[in-house]
Write a structure and sequence with these properties.
The complex is a heterodimer of chains A (208) and B (467). With 208 residues, chain A is α/β, with parallel strands linked by helices. Chain A has 2 domains: 6-173, Aconitase, domain 4 (Alpha-Beta Barrel); 174-208, no CATH class. In chain A, 34% of the residues lie in helices and 13% in strands. The longest helix of chain A is centred in the middle third of the chain and has 14 residues, at 121-134. Chain A starts with 5 loop residues before the first strand and ends in a 7-residue tail after the last helix. Chain B has a domain at 291-466: 2-Layer Sandwich (Aconitase, domain 3). Chain B contains 15 helices and 19 strands. Chain B has helices at residues 8-15, 40-49, 83-95, 111-117, 149-158, 183-194, 209-213, 216-224, 240-246, 255-265, 315-328, 354-364, 382-390, 393-400, 449-458, and strands at 17-20, 26-29, 32-36, 60-63, 99-101, 126-129, 143-146, 160-163, 167-174, 202-207, 233-235, 278-283, 290-292, 300-302, 343-346, 374-377, 403-404, 425-428, 443-446. Chain B has a 5-stranded parallel sheet with strand order 5-4-3-6-7, covered by helices on one side. In chain B, α12 links the parallel β15 (343-346) and β16. In chain B, α12 runs parallel beside α15. The longest helix of chain B has 14 residues, at 315-328. Chain B starts with 7 loop residues before the first helix and ends in a 9-residue tail after the last helix. Classes of the chains: A alpha/beta (208), B alpha/beta (467). At the A-B interface, α4, α6, α7, α8 and α9 of A face α3, α5 and α10 of B.
Chain lengths: 208, 467
């Protein structure tokens, strides 16, 4: 996984609640197992019925290489599809800032080097206002080691993230490798269950 | 651990706790892992790339549900765009020694319908599916986690999922249900109260007399909509109804193992002195059949209700309501009943089990699908389809003018190409009424099978209690 330290670039405003993963990754419009994920991002919303571009924020010239997406409440709700994250990273968005972020989507972010930031209250009011006002004209910077977001006018917003999620992003650790350090415990668990609750350790088709 | 009693969630969690990683995440063992064709091919690919194997192919099962056509006589290629997924699923499963419930298999169907039906999911067991509706199987008292593709790959390689422990929320379902009201209506009423993010960060236990009185299929429907409350996991504590429902299913324990399992399952309840992080009560007495009017599942009213009038709302609440009313083509303040309907879909992991089809068929029987309406009934599994046909339900649907489909997810998410037309009003027994979910411009109203069937035969949104 690509480690995350700092990120600078346009911050794109989509100040709405409940932006769901069907909107982010409209899979009905994708073809095949390995589509161009970036091209799929918000595809349904950013084209007219005839397929031409509409006035969606992603179609604006200043957001052709966005880095940060700023939303409101409950970003990433709905389907568990990880392709929602792949669509975002596909256009270069590696940080989402929202008042709240849906559970499964947040996990998917962490596993793909996309930094999910939750900001609330007047801090978020101010950041959203700045992002809307600057409208991609100047870059915002996200500094994960310092846990801060820097606006181009010098204003700074501190954010919280758990130590473990921070390390995970900073080091881009191999998740399976981390877990397999516990392989002995997994084997011991399976042996214990085989002895005490054997039905949990075998899924046998009794018709066969 | 304190000496205070434990919630059922904590009992199941602690029973499956393998260890704690240095980053603080807990390793939770997954008893049964069920995959589907839309996401598993990518995980099989990544696993091969990393040179890793499926650790427990014997506890892992593959379903073909998302990309498959539901047209009678279907093959891999009936929905051409899905064929690559179906084949990759078949090949990836074979290569990794995972049993696949393929097209034509008598047990093929929607994973969240098939896994309980086969007894793959059991009370107190942990369950993972790369699908947010994994929570469905909480209806049997299992603890399920919907997950993404990388998590799926992680579980394939390790048989554990790494999580921080969620908080606990209990939803007390009080009162009793009237006629023509079922699990779907209860779930929608909860979402209306809790909101689409109210369950975020929580595991939800559905309790109270209404949860107890729901048949198992109704509990599966109720738990299916847990993710629409913002929560990853929801469940109903198992009871005798659960145990009777599971007994004799193909993968359920039998003989001495059954007795041993049953003795354990009887300990699966929340202790009287256990404390939840949050509790809410929902009184279900007098609940009308529910219908969504808007574009997210908390925008719900009774079938006898009216579309909200944004001008009566606080200024900061108006915009999303106005947008939803506009997208849905509604009049502010107007009755929902009577609106003309273009399409009816009865199916999906939410409402495609035998009792759902029986409810719908009882309404459809002796009637015809209204002119201009396209109506589909798509059983949730091949087994449900056979059971329904043995009862003659297929004839009732077909004689009325319904399509009687093969089993699959179909137009719930439209990932098999099944979609409505732009601007079409659809009554759907599915779980998401998002803009464009069922096709560009499609206006989806979520309902239970009774309201869906009533609309199919009248051509309008209809209070089934008056039919």
């Amino acid at each position: 996984m690509q480690p995350f330290t700092t990120l600078s670039g346009p911050a794109m405003p989509m100040i709405e609640d409940d932006i769901n993963t069907d909107q982010i990754a409209p899979l009905q419009l994708s073809k095949g197992l390995s589509p161009d994920w970036g091209a799929l991002l918000f595809k349904r919303q950013r084209m007219n019925a005839d397929g031409s571009d509409n006035d969606h924020v992603l179609n604006k010239p200043q957001y052709q290489n966005p880095a940060i997406l700023v939303a409101n409440e409950n970003f990433g709700c709905g389907s568990s599809r990880e392709s929602a994250v792949w669509c975002l990273t596909g256009v270069g968005i590696r940080c989402v800032i929202a008042r709240s972020i849906a559970d499964i989507f947040r996990e998917n972010c962490l596993l793909n080097g996309l930094l999910p930031i939750e900001l609330s209250g007047t801090d978020m009011d101010r950041l959203q206002a700045l992002v809307t006002q600057i409208d991609g004209g100047q870059p915002f910077t996200v500094d994960l080691p310092a846990q801060s977001v820097h606006a181009p006018n010098g204003e700074t917003f501190a954010f919280e993230i758990s130590a473990s999620d921070k390390t995970r992003l900073l080091e881009g650790l191999d998740e399976v490798g981390l877990t397999m350090k516990h392989e002995g415990e997994i084997v011991a668990f399976e042996e214990k269950m085989r002895a005490s609750m054997p039905w949990t350790q075998e899924a046998r088709d009794r018709r066969r | 651990m304190s000496d205070r009693g434990r919630t059922l969630f904590d009992k199941i969690w602690e029973q499956h706790l393998v260890g704690q990683r240095t980053d603080g995440r807990e390793l939770i063992y997954i008893d049964r892992h069920v995959l589907h064709d839309l996401h598993a091919p990518h995980a099989f690919g990544k696993l091969a790339q990393a040179g890793r194997k499926v650790r427990r192919p014997d506890l892992t099962f593959s379903m073909q549900d998302h990309s498959v056509s539901v047209q009678p006589g279907r093959t891999d290629d009936t929905y051409a765009e899905g064929a690559a997924f179906v084949r990759a699923m078949r090949e990836g499963s074979a290569k990794n020694g995972v049993r696949v419930f393929d097209l034509g298999d008598p047990d093929q169907g929607i994973s969240h319908v098939v896994a309980p039906e086969l007894g793959l999911v059991l009370p107190g067991a942990t369950h993972a599916v790369p699908d947010s509706h994994a929570c469905t199987v909480g209806g049997l008292g299992a603890l399920a986690f919907g997950c993404g593709t990388t998590e799926l790959e992680h579980i394939l390689a390790t048989q554990v999922i790494t999580l921080f422990r969620p908080k606990r929320l209990r939803v007390n379902l009080l009162g009793s249900l009237g006629a023509d009201v079922a699990g779907k209506d209860v779930a929608l009423a909860i979402i209306a109260k809790l909101g689409v993010a109210g369950g975020r960060g929580f595991a939800i236990e559905f309790a109270g007399p209404v949860a107890r009185a729901l048949p198992i299929e109704g509990r599966l429907t109720l738990c299916n909509l847990t993710i629409e409350m913002g929560s990853r996991s929801g469940f109903v504590a198992p009871d005798d109804a659960t145990f009777n429902w599971i007994k004799g299913r193909p993968f359920a324990p039998d003989g001495a193992q059954w007795d041993q399992a049953l003795a354990y399952w009887r300990t699966l309840f929340t202790d009287a002195d256990a404390v939840y992080d949050k509790e809410i009560d929902v009184d279900c007495s007098g609940l009308a059949p529910q219908i969504t009017w808007g574009t997210e599942p908390s925008q719900v009213i009774g079938i006898d209700g009216r579309v909200p009038d944004p001008s009566l709302l606080d200024a900061d609440k108006r915009a999303p309501v106005e947008r939803a009313i506009s997208y849905m083509g509604l009049e502010p303040g107007a009755a929902i009943e009577g609106l003309p309907v273009g399409r009816v879909f009865i199916g999906s992991c939410t409402n495609s089990r035998l009792p759902d089809l029986e409810i719908a068929a009882a309404i459809v029987k002796g009637r015809k699908v209204a002119p201009g309406v396209t109506a589909w009934a798509v059983p949730g599994s091949s087994q449900v389809k056979r059971d329904a046909e043995a009862r003659g339900l297929d004839r009732i649907f077909k004689e009325a003018g319904f399509l009687w489909g093969e089993s699959g997810c179909s137009m719930c998410a439209g990932t098999n190409g099944d979609m409505g037309a732009d601007g079409e009003r659809v009554l759907s027994t599915t779980n998401r009424n998002f803009e464009n979910r069922q096709g560009r411009g499609v206006r989806t109203h979520l309902v239970g099978p009774a309201l869906a069937a009533a609309a199919a035969v009248t051509g309008r949104i209809t209070d089934v209690r008056k039919l």
